[in-house]
Amino acid sequence: MNPHATRPAIELRGVSKTYMTGSGDLTVLKDVSISVGHGEHAAIVGPSGSGKSTMLSILGTLDQPTMGDVLVDDRSTGAMSDGERSELRSRSLGFVFQQFHLLPHVDAVGNVELGMLYSGLARAERRRRASEALERVGLAERLDHRPTQLSGGEQQRVAIARAIAHRPAVVLADEPTGALDQTTGQSIITLFRRLDDVALVVITHDENIAAGFRRRIKIRDGRIESDENVLPAVGRRDGSACPA
Ligand SMILES: Nc1ncnc2c1ncn2[C@@H]1O[C@H](COP(=O)(O)OP(=O)(O)OP(=O)(O)O)[C@@H](O)[C@H]1O
Ligand SMILES: [Mg+2]
């Protein structure tokens, strides 16, 4: 157990997911429980088809578990109406996907602002927060660029700005570096790692990317195979050099 663990921002409790398919029922998540604290960052790794994206959709209340519950900020979402869940998402959750999902004819600041359309914030405040979020991801000079006028890495930065502009407690990212080259991918992860005010869950296939996270949750065949939390290697007693 991590002694520095904070209050849970998001939790799965005994979550199972079964899809009904033409060839019978398919259970893709089996009694999964995890908790990610406020400000904590975790990588989810596992083979293709192991249930990672299903788990992220359920964490993000985009999909419903067959059994178990999802709690966001200690609030159970199981009994919420669709409207309550969508309000919860627009207030507390941010999403980043492999594809950037930006509107092509809208500039960067407009794309970020549109993410807050249903937030209840006034237009001027939405614009202010959108500009602030774009500054935070290093795109202060690109506010009026449309997606075609941005590199892949820059487009993903806009998507990250959109995910954080409404100041959510939790950011969920499904293969956010999947469409980028290695170097650009690493710079996106460096940017994510600086978001110390959000609970962050990042799905990745890439072991090098996962290695950048202290907490690594391995999922296999719908179950948590391991959940390691490597504490920083500081102050070793034998005086040996510590890995950076
Ligand atoms: N709507 C659905 N109906 C039926 N089966 C589904 C549905 N969605 C996902 N599955 C199945 O659930 C399993 C887990 O899928 P999921 O997308 O969560 O895997 P993943 O770990 O994200 O894989 P990848 O690394 O390839 O993205 C797969 O076998 C998939 O075929
Ligand atoms: Mg997936």
TrEMBL record:
One of its GO terms (molecular function) is transmembrane transporter activity. GO terms for cellular component: membrane protein complex; plasma membrane. Gene3D superfamilies: P-loop containing nucleotide triphosphate hydrolases. Residues 10-244 form the ABC transporter domain. Keywords: ATP-binding, Nucleotide-binding, Transport. This is Putative ABC transport system ATP-binding protein.
